[in-house]
From TrEMBL:
Name this polypeptide is given: Uncharacterized protein
Lineage: superkingdom: Eukaryota
Ranges of biased composition (kind: Acidic residues): 32-42
Sequence segments annotated as region (Disordered): 1-105, 135-186
Bias (Basic and acidic residues): 1-11, 51-62, 92-104, 135-145, 167-177
Regions crossing the membrane: none
Source species: Edaphochlamys debaryana
Length: 186
C-alpha cells in the first residue's frame, strides 16, 4: 500500500481537509479503505490547463490599451544645450530696451541717492553715539575719583539728603511721631 503525499499549493502550504490523514491511511486506523480504486482517484489530481490570453479577450473583459512606447518618436538633437540665464523673451526676438532701460535707470538713480543719504545719516548717528559714550565715561571717571568731605556734603544738600548730627532727643521725638504722638515741643 503506497502512501500519497499531501497536496501543496504554489507557496508550499499544505492543502486539503483536516481529515486528510484518515483518508490516506496514515490516520488512527479508523475508516481505512482497502480499495485500490479509492486511492487511485485520490492520487489523480486534475492538471490545470494553461489558458492562452489574447488582446481580444482582454478587451472583451474591459481592459484598454494605452499608447505604445514603440510608437514614440526619438528626441531630436537641436545642437549643444545653452543653460545660461535667459532674458524672458523668445530666442529670435531682438532687444528693444531703449525706453525701458532709461526709465529703470532714472528710478535706480533716485533709489541710489536715498541710499547714500541713509548711509550718511547712519554714520552721523554712530558718531553721536560714540561722543555720548565718551561723555558718559568721563562723567563716570569723575564720580569715581575720591571727593573731599565738603564736596560730599554739598552733593547731599543739593539732592535733599543732608544729614545732621542726631541726638538722643531728636531720635526719640521721631519715633514718637511714628506712633502718632505729637508733643508740640520741637
Amino acid at each position: 500500500m503506497k502512501k500519497s503525499e499531501p497536496k501543496k499549493d504554489k507557496f508550499g502550504l499544505l492543502l486539503g481537509d483536516e481529515d486528510s490523514e484518515s483518508k490516506d491511511g496514515s490516520g488512527s486506523g479508523e475508516g481505512e479503505s482497502s480499495e485500490p480504486e479509492a486511492e487511485a482517484e485520490e492520487q489523480q489530481v486534475p492538471k490545470k490547463k494553461k489558458v492562452e490570453l489574447s488582446l481580444e479577450d482582454l478587451e472583451r473583459a474591459g481592459y484598454k490599451s494605452g499608447p505604445s512606447v514603440l510608437l514614440v518618436k526619438p528626441p531630436v538633437d537641436e545642437g549643444p544645450s545653452d543653460w545660461t540665464w535667459g532674458k524672458g523673451r523668445p530666442k529670435g526676438q531682438k532687444d528693444d530696451e531703449g525706453d525701458d532701460r532709461a526709465a529703470t535707470r532714472d528710478a535706480v538713480a533716485g533709489v541710489n541717492a536715498a541710499a547714500e543719504a541713509a548711509v550718511k545719516a547712519m554714520a552721523h548717528a554712530a558718531e553721536l553715539r560714540e561722543a555720548a559714550k565718551a561723555e558718559r565715561l568721563e562723567a563716570a571717571a569723575e564720580r569715581n575719583k575720591p571727593l573731599s568731605f565738603n564736596q560730599k556734603e554739598k552733593r547731599k544738600r543739593d539732592t535733599g539728603q543732608a544729614s545732621r548730627g542726631k541726638s538722643y532727643v531728636e531720635e526719640s521725638k521721631r519715633q514718637a511721631r511714628d506712633f502718632g504722638v505729637y508733643s508740640g515741643f520741637d
